[in-house]
Amino acid sequence: MSLKTNNICLTAYPKGLPTPEHFEMTTTDVSPAGDGEITVRNHWMSVDPYMRGRMSGIKTYIEPFQIGEPLEGGAIGEVTHSGHKDFKVGDWVMTMLGWREMFTANVEDMRKVMLQKVDPNMLPAQAYLGVAGMPGLTAYAGLYKVAEFQPGETVLVSGAAGAVGSTVCQLAKADGATVIGIAGTDAKCKWLVAHGCDSAINYKTAENAANMTKAIRNAAPGGIDVYFENVGGIMLEAALNNMKIFGRMAVCGMISAYNDEAPVPGPSNLVQIVGKSLKVQGFIVSNYSKYALEYFAKLGPLMAAGKLVQQETVLEGLDKAPEAFLRLFSGDKQGKMLVKIT
Amino acid sequence: MSLKTNNICLTAYPKGLPTPEHFEMTTTDVSPAGDGEITVRNHWMSVDPYMRGRMSGIKTYIEPFQIGEPLEGGAIGEVTHSGHKDFKVGDWVMTMLGWREMFTANVEDMRKVMLQKVDPNMLPAQAYLGVAGMPGLTAYAGLYKVAEFQPGETVLVSGAAGAVGSTVCQLAKADGATVIGIAGTDAKCKWLVAHGCDSAINYKTAENAANMTKAIRNAAPGGIDVYFENVGGIMLEAALNNMKIFGRMAVCGMISAYNDEAPVPGPSNLVQIVGKSLKVQGFIVSNYSKYALEYFAKLGPLMAAGKLVQQETVLEGLDKAPEAFLRLFSGDKQGKMLVKIT
């Protein structure tokens, strides 16, 4: 039996904003699962901002992608062949072997990175790539463990309409917070106000840090206890201006900087970190996996009650994966960006 | 009986670097202590970088100084008249009523801010303004409580030759750290290497963030666990480039920014806060006063063993106080800057 898969590979490490030319589709053979292996047909894959870091050719907390090799990322698929006693044909699994239609891989090797059975009858399969997966746990860990959010506090979220940000907003609201979201279109802001935000600011109409500072002040005259940072730049500067004494910032990402070709200066008001006794803490979700069960215990009732919903933008076909990824940076999507592979 | 005191007052809120014209000496009457009051003759006063913030006319975590009123700050003096049962003539006290030769004040009012008996036989009186006072506790709290320093880690200190920085270096070294100090003259660097630092970098020869980054990397090829920040600007940028994953920064001050007339952009590499999971935390010593006894228990044996020494620059006469203060920013001093009043 001969199996074939299409894969998306990088043609070169992009400098600045990646373009479609940085990606190519390849076709390779897939051997059916041998001993200790499983073969998986992917149904869904995730694109996430952190992947940009792995496209720079530089080792950070994780290895860079290799030119000409299939990219990697969260994916949900179905087992089609099994050579391992823990998996049977028809099982659904979450792996980090996205950006391809099909693969065969060693179970123990995958377990070192990510291999988890999921139940598509309990939740829509793609939810495991969003609110019930890595972005959801990122939101939970950042809000509760890093920023030490306390019920009833005032929370500011940048990138609020994204997969992580929208989960932060809804979790905080469910715990009685006053929530202010920042997003890039009026449509996103409208969605946010309908889903957990007391108010939402369209940063494209605020234009600069001074206007952002005022817009946040209008939304939260008493100041901000917790800032959940996904964006950086003028968002960070405006947030600093509005933090309360002893405020905390969970720094999840700074998407505004990911495609900078030359260094772009940071905020001029970092000295407020001293005067306001702020804690500014970066984090990577993989260091918080021990809180997954705690998060899922919170997630279930909130989803059942309709207090935590996943908004999605879905592109169909593996060939659309580069476009899906690039739209993370243009902002041309709503909620969790997904690719439906088959 | 008529008592007179000279005082140093602010003539205007400075924009940018203060000059001698921003200060004036006034002479006022002092009534001998009435009921509930004490009269104190100051012998020593402290000048500290944080005072610049109170000269801006803006309320931060503390009220601004008032134009035409005596400035305030740490001082050590002797009780000359007492109307309060807890104090007798000849007692030595530490108060926040510096920048004046003499004063009468209500004991309960002073206790709300700072009023503490000190023993000039146990330590030189001026040590209570340095290593055994607020700067010393600042060093201890920042290193152990904010940055969560663990014995044996690698510690980088900016403003290392100052009152706080030099204490941080010596405390860390006593706990087996590898310590790298950053200071502004070769003489300061030489003192640092003789007092706790494994190596010292003269930032004036490093010139820019790229050179500072290299100088730190040469001194600590394995990276930095703890950065004790007194300076900001290119020091912060270079420190970020050298932090280890899970590194911590105690942000005590950013003296490079205190006299900025216009906003100066911050470092371009803040995104490393995410990739390295850094904690960057500002603090104000007054929120750590509960650790004073714990610190003094550590301080005593270290001072007795000569492992923690206070380097001082002393100017004589209250009229020299403005000059002493301004030399904090020019860097023209070694160690703790003090004014001997009488």
What secondary-structure arrangement, pairings included, does this model have?
2 copies of one chain form a homodimer.
Chain A: E1 3-10, E2 23-30, E3 37-46, H1 51-54, E4 75-82, E5 92-95, E6 102-106, H2 107-113, E7 115-118, H3 134-146, E8 154-157, H4 163-174, E9 178-183, H5 186-194, E10 199-202, H6 203-206, H7 209-219, E11 224-229, H8 234-242, E12 243-251, H9 272-275, E13 279-282, H10 292-304, E14 312-316, H11 321-330, E15 336-340
Parallel strand pairs in A: 8-9, 8-11, 9-10, 11-12, 12-13, 14-15
Antiparallel strand pairs in A: 1-2, 3-4, 3-6, 3-15, 4-5, 5-7
Helix pairs in contact in A: 3-4, 7-8
Please describe the structure with a list of short key phrases separated by commas or semicolons:
homodimer; 342 residues; alpha/beta; Quinone Oxidoreductase, Chain A, domain 1; Rossmann fold; 2 domains; seven-stranded mixed β-sheet; six-stranded parallel β-sheet; 11 helices; 28% helix; globular
Describe this structure in words.
The structure is a homodimer of 342-residue chains. Chain A has 342 residues and is α/β, with parallel strands linked by helices. Chain A folds into two domains: 3-130 and 310-340, Medium-chain alcohol dehydrogenases, catalytic domain (Quinone Oxidoreductase, Chain A, domain 1, Alpha-Beta Complex); 134-287 and 297-301, Rossmann fold, CATH 3.40.50.720. The first copy, chain A, has eleven helices and 15 strands. In chain A, the strands form three sheets. In chain A, strands 3, 4, 5, 6, 7, 14 and 15 form a seven-stranded mixed sheet that branches. In chain A, strands 10-9-8-11-12-13 form a six-stranded parallel sheet, with helices on both faces. A two-stranded antiparallel ribbon of chain A has the order 1-2. In chain A, helix 7 (209-219) crosses helix 8. The model of chain A has no long low-confidence stretch (mean pLDDT 95). Chain A binds chain B through residues 53, 60-61, 232, 236, 245, 251-254, 257-258, 260, 263-284, 287, and chain B through 53, 60-61, 232, 236, 245, 251-254, 257-258, 260, 263-284, 287.
